[in-house]
Amino acid sequence: MNVNEKGQIGLIETIRDLTKKGYECFLPMHDYSPIDLIVTDTNFNTYKIQVKYRTEFRNHIEVGLHSVVNGKRIPVDLLAIDGWAIYCPEVDTVVYINKKEVDTTKRSLTFRLTEGSNTLGKNQQKRKLYSDFTNGWLSSVDDIASGQGGNAVDC
Questions:
Q1: Domain containing residue 30
Q2: What is the pTM of this model?
Q3: What's the whole-number mean pLDDT along residues 118-137?
């Protein structure tokens, strides 16, 4: 599969997941926007999502904080999006990450699909990434850190 096919699969799976959960999904009219999907909830709150298709490598998923356009690396415009929907084909799950939870000083975001075997250092915080758009995306960082919500994928 080429990158365009993978991107389309990620987009289709994200739309399928959100539609099943009661959200309405809208697509931009062109392909050069940092926004891949616009989502509204029942209260007409709007969310701008960048969709990624990522396979695991050594039980990790890595998402670069950039896009490649015409072979050139371009940083993600964090003012244009609210976060990411990441489709993981190995577990057939879409993980939603709010941009507020991302360390923008890094070049990429990495998370685990299962809990690691090592204990966390004292400066590390155990977090959960959610496959439930409502409980994960809309929760505050404190809610996510405390494990409130549902359908979590440990990282």
A1: 3-154
A2: 0.75
A3: 47
